[in-house]
Amino acid sequence: MKPLKILFVCIGNTCRSPMAESVMKHWVKEYDLNWEVDSAGLRLWNVGRKPDERCIKVLEENGLATDHIGRQISPIDFYKYDYILAMDEHNMSELQELAGDPSHQRCAKIELLGKYIERKEDQIIRDPYFSISIGGFRCAFLQITESCQNFIAEHMYAD
């Protein structure tokens, strides 16, 4: 069976999407799933850079690590991945615009990652980059973890 391919996307690929990539990779390994996971940003700002130090710290607090280096989403990603998961409505809107005509034969299904959170009011994973404290990163981590676990539960046995 071919691997399920998932791409997480946020604005800069320095906070939320690399965090989601790390969390999902952890669970994919834990469940021994044949899935490929990556992340990208909509902007060039952090291409070639490591994630934000606060992102790395929150991952470490939870026993996770990342070796991610920032990259920008490319047109081929819409054909390479099965799912492109956005962190908020602005990311989602921009991804839909970049993807173009939905009747084309692109592979990727574009969704909000937060769609997999049960509480509707928690479904937008806010950008913690401008947070004064690390609390915004911890909140994003909790939302991302729940989303990833529920995504796995829904797609683990799907063909």
TrEMBL record:
Keyword Nucleotidyltransferase attributed: no
Residues annotated as the enzyme's active site: C10 (nucleophile), R16, D127 (proton donor)
Bilayer-spanning residue ranges: none
Organism domain of life: Eukaryota
Classification via InterPro entries: LMW_PTPase, Ptyr_pPase, Ptyr_pPase_sf, Tyr_phospatase_low_mol_wt
CDD domains for the chain: LMWPTP
GO annotations of cellular component type: cytoplasm
Domain Phosphotyrosine protein phosphatase I: 4-154
GO MF entries: protein tyrosine phosphatase activity
Keywords, in A-Z order: Cytoplasm, Hydrolase, Protein phosphatase
First-listed, main subcellular location of the protein, grouped into a coarse class: cytoplasm
Entry-linked Gene3D superfamilies: 3.40.50.2300
Protein's cellular compartments: Cytoplasm
Homology family: Belongs to the low molecular weight phosphotyrosine protein phosphatase family.
Name listed for the protein in its UniProt record: Low molecular weight phosphotyrosine protein phosphatase 1
Native organism taxonomy: Eukaryota, Metazoa, Ecdysozoa, Arthropoda, Hexapoda
